[in-house]
Amino acid sequence: MIVLHLTGCPIGLRGDLTKWLMEISAGVFVGRVSARVRENIWNRVVSLCKNGRAIMVYPAANEQGLNFYVHGDTWEPINFDGLKLMLRPSEFRLKQSHIPKTGFSNAAKYRKAKKPHHCTSVSALRRMPKTYIILDIETTGLNPKADEIIEIGAIKIESGKKIDVLNTLIIPKNPIPPKITEITGITQAQIDTFGIPLSAALTKAVAFLDNLPIVCHNVEFDRKFIVAACQKLNIPFNPTTIDTLAIARSIVKGLPNYKLQTLAKHLSIPYGNPHRSMGDCETIWQLYEKLMNLQQSQ
């Protein structure tokens, strides 16, 4: 069963939802639907609720027995040690959310997008989650709107141990540029032999991620590509993310840059297969653990 609560949403949306759910009170809907229908309902709510607020609660195979989506609310869902909790808004955060935003030119937006986005939560800097995912992707370029994902790698970590891995090659719409083959070692022949369609790869990856916190290096790069691809396929993807790039900049000082290879060399971390998803994941895992140890010792 799912429970959906709407506040300040258009009347038309409420009427539309009665095709699948029963409205038992103003803006409160309940019903039993498949996971696929549930995700489609939520995507519909997000696209049509305008300035309203929406919360959906549904059963999940986790310790809590449930999961939830939140849209347009000041309460923020967070993952903590594998548990999904709600962060109540502080007075400061409420004031920040009401600060008027000024517009930017396209050039300014592009420059801003190139700057690293510090997605690391405060809790991530204080304590490592018990269970989390190390994630890395390889792409045909740097533009999530024009370029494509060609490899996804992920490692599931629980209590400091590797418990599962995911590695998938993806068939792009366009041939792999020679420069990308030169950097990653991924050839068109490998893609033709072992690659799977993007929709199948993302479905498999999102199931593997299982709403756990995701650790990446320069997380905005990976996140933007996956979000753009998921949006095209109507696959929900809005994880809690931890950025080793942001953590490293706050803890390790004086480096010429904070590329994964530079940090690995500086911190004596083996880096055997750069620019391949699984090789990068292994290095990111060791980097994250070493950064957390450094942070705790300071």
Helix and strand topology:
Blueprint: E1 2-7, H1 11-17, E2 22-25, E3 28-31, H2 35-48, E4 53-59, E5 66-71, E6 76-80, E7 83-87, H3 91-97, H4 106-114, H5 122-126, E8 131-139, E9 149-158, E10 161-169, H6 178-184, H7 188-194, H8 198-209, E11 214-216, H9 219-232, E12 241-243, H10 244-251, H11 260-266, H12 277-297
Parallel strand pairs: 8-11, 11-12
Antiparallel strand pairs: 1-3, 1-4, 2-3, 4-5, 6-7, 8-9, 9-10
Helix pairs in contact: 10-12
How many structural domains does the protein architecture include?
A: 2
Across the major sheet, the strand order is 2-3-1-4-5
Mean pLDDT score, rounded? 83
Question: Helical percent range?
Answer: 25-40%
Structural class: alpha+beta
Main sheet specs: 5 strands, antiparallel
Q: What's the β-strand tally?
A: 12
Overall geometric form: globular
Looking at CATH, the homologous superfamily of the largest domain is: Ribonuclease H-like superfamily/Ribonuclease H
CATH class membership of the largest domain: Alpha Beta
Radius of gyration: 21 Å
Low-confidence stretches: 90-124
C-alpha termini separation:
47 Å
H/E element string? Answer: EHEEHEEEEHHHEEEHHHEHEHHH
Strand content of the residues, in percent?
15-25%
Number of helix segments? 12
Could you tell me the CATH topology label of the largest domain: Nucleotidyltransferase, domain 5
Overview of the molecule:
The protein is α+β, with helices and mostly antiparallel strands and 298 residues long. Helices cover 40% and strands 24% of the residues. It has two domains: 2-97, Alpha-Beta Plaits, CATH 3.30.70; 112-297, 2-Layer Sandwich (Nucleotidyltransferase, domain 5), CATH 3.30.420. It has helices at 11-17, 35-48, 91-97, 106-114, 122-126, 178-184, 188-194, 198-209, 219-232, 244-251, 260-266, 277-297; strands at residues 2-7, 22-25, 28-31, 53-59, 66-71, 76-80, 83-87, 131-139, 149-158, 161-169, 214-216, 241-243. It has a five-stranded antiparallel beta sheet with strand order 2-3-1-4-5, covered by helices on one side. Helix 10 (244-251) packs parallel to helix 12 (277-297). Residues 90-124 have low confidence and may be disordered.
